[in-house]
Design brief:
mainly alpha, 130 residues, elongated
Length: 130
């Protein structure tokens, strides 16, 4: 006849209450995480909206300043000799050349920060020289 076994049975399956507690804890953790993410999303949306309002305000201000400059330019009486218009055109052309040179320098340096500065200076001088 075989001797009775004195061994303990394997681990018992978790009780229904233990399973409920584990699921409840997991649910609460997920809920807390979701609420924190929702709060963060709302904060980011508020920041985004504020940023848009600031940009819109700046755009309105820029447009207003441009309109004011144009208005003053139209109201400004012509003074000086008849060549003033030609000088204004030359100044505008020089300004455009400088902008073109600045754009060239910026584009070159963005593409290659170690670009030859003397070559860039030569290019700028070509834009500026009459």
């Amino acid at each position: 006849m075989a001797a009775p076994r004195d061994e303990m049975p394997g681990p018992l399956p978790p009780s229904l209450a233990q399973q409920y507690d584990a699921q409840s804890h997991s649910f609460e953790a997920d809920r807390a995480r979701r609420l924190a993410l929702q709060k963060e999303l709302e904060e980011l949306q508020r920041e985004s909206e504020h940023g848009k309002q600031v940009l819109d305000n700046l755009a309105v201000k820029i447009q207003s300043l441009r309109a004011e400059v144009e208005r003053q330019r139209k109201l400004k009486p012509e003074r000086g000799c008849s060549s003033c218009h030609a000088v204004t055109l030359q100044v505008d052309a020089a300004a455009q050349s400088l902008l073109g040179a600045a754009g060239h320098v910026a584009r070159t340096l963005l593409r290659d920060p170690s670009a030859d500065r003397s070559e860039l200076l030569g290019t700028v001088l070509q834009y500026v020289e009459p």
